[in-house]
Specification:
With 65 residues, the protein is mostly helical. It has three helices and no strands. It is rod-shaped.
């Protein structure tokens, strides 16, 4: 009985490992990209609305990238 539980946990771990290996991502990349994109989009909107000038836009854009 105990051996079946251990084998089940090992099998489940292998399935999870295989899914992560196939997708090639742990989720960190997508979160980081989304944050960078949204920050850049906010910066672009501020520039378009005239809240910041071109010099400040370029400086902040360089900081983000």
């Amino acid at each position: 009985m105990g051996l079946m539980i251990i084998l089940g946990v090992i099998f489940l771990g292998l399935i999870i490992w295989a899914v992560v290996a196939i997708t090639g991502s742990t989720g960190k990349t997508s979160i980081t990209k989304t944050t960078e994109n949204s920050a850049l989009e906010i910066l672009k909107m501020r520039y378009a609305r005239g809240e910041i000038d071109k010099e400040e836009f370029e400086m902040k854009k360089k900081d983000l990238l």
